[in-house]
Amino acid sequence: MKYLKLGLLFLGLSLYNCNTETKPKLSVNIVLSDSLSNKNLNGRLLLILSDNNDTEPRFQVSEGLNAQPIFGMNVENWSNDKAYSFDDSVFGFPYEQLSQLKSGDYYVQAVLHVYETFKLSSGKEVKLPMDHGEGQHWNTSPGNLYSKPIKISVSDTGTQSFNIVLNQVIAEIQEPQDTEWIKHIKMKSSLLSEFWGRDIYLGAHILLPKGFNEHPEAKYPLMVFQGHFPSDFGGFRTTPPDENVKPEYSDRFHVDGYNITEQQEAYNFYKRWNEPDFPRFLIIEIQHPTPYYDDSYAVNSASQGPYGDALTYELIPYIEKMFRGQGAGWSRFLYGGSTGGWEALAVQVKYPDEYNGCFAACPDPIDFRAYCLTNIYQDENAYYAKSNHKLIEVPAHRDYLGNVSSTVKESNHLELVLGDKSRSGGQFDIWEATYSPQGEDGYPIRLWDKKSGIINHEVAQYWKENYDLRHILERDWDKLGEKLKGKIHIYCGDMDNYYLNNAVYLMEDFLESTTDPYYDGEVDYGDRAEHCWNGDHENPNAISRLRYNSMYVPKIMKRIMESAPSDADLTSWRYK
Fold this sequence. Notes:
By secondary structure, this protein is of the alpha/beta class. It contains 13 helices and 23 strands.
């Protein structure tokens, strides 16, 4: 612990030096508008300041080099007759205190992320944000309250106070409409409704194969595209790119007119989908947001409920019955990237008989010895590299040249501003909400202290036995080996932005060296490829990420031909 004590000493000296300088004394008071009928509100009150007016401050929150100041606090039973004040007692990011703000002009906005009360089947009562069709995004969630941005000037002298009124309500989101090709369904989950103490629905967008109505005798294999909350089925377009659309530059891929490229790729897939030699499948994108994140990670969880069982035993059979799926394990396949990559592999591992193959691209950490750059079993602190005489923060994000733009500490401190008790809707918090045991207060138990980064190794052991996919495979290979043979395919760039390739290396070591029977699958890497490389050696990420729905089809067809049982229907869906 010597390195940790030294680090905290340096941190304390740094804050002491900042606080002894002459800094502005800033106080911001926030009230509810009399025009709002809301009373006794609970939630997370956020104050965002932006040094530019490019977009509203609420849309500029990030942990990267463009980070803007944000501060957050819980509110309870808030009515119009009460004001909440932001001052130096309120934690913020990237400045921990308002008094540390640089002098200058800012555009200021406040948002209330509204919480609802859930009475869980465990007997616990928790306050969490319900998803309202936006995919758990606090800055666009219908029903959340916000203010219009105002411009203020912060100086280095004097005491300053500003008042902000929450007088706007984020509007409801329109549901997508059915088309000839794409259908949308929602179903009430009995398993999840019992867990959460209220009606919980699962949804999906279904892409129908060519000839679906003309071939009522056909029953189709199913491709399940895992990933973040989809507002509609993506990457499918029946018309060429809009000639009048204005080209947009992609900061992520450094490509001009990327929006036009997306439209062209979606149209290309539509044409490919209709070609005579293209297999006739059902493809679904599922909606399973939780009060913690934009999706559930598709597994059973102490704090989120039995989403794995609900998806596999309730939603999938419901869709197959409605749209004539084969309804058998040999005919179901999983694929996705990042969150979806972890889900594809995890669901295949946890339900080995119900699916016949997974294609996991750039998966979230699949071996917690490489939880990004942290070994949660051996490291004592997630924020600082171990050292007796220097303080080095652990990186969280890099580009393909190794340039670092944020650290694990910064990521977690931003999440702590957005919501305590794993309620930020952020990446580290959803891993906790999925993998951690439920605490006495009904919320997930922290893997590490959110401010200091000190790791709780008892929680780490719980994660290991329940969600460390490499450990689970190694522990249970005598039972799982034959069931998973030929089903595991993993792809990752060797310069993944979040260092996810490190865990893939460890998984590959086990799969290639110690499995008996041999796993007979595939692990592949993209040279200098960033997040989210998916196995395409011919095209850059900007293109390959738009081709998920077709790129694994040849491998799926090969798998079906090699593994389908002798009585399987291999003909009704093979029409031209």
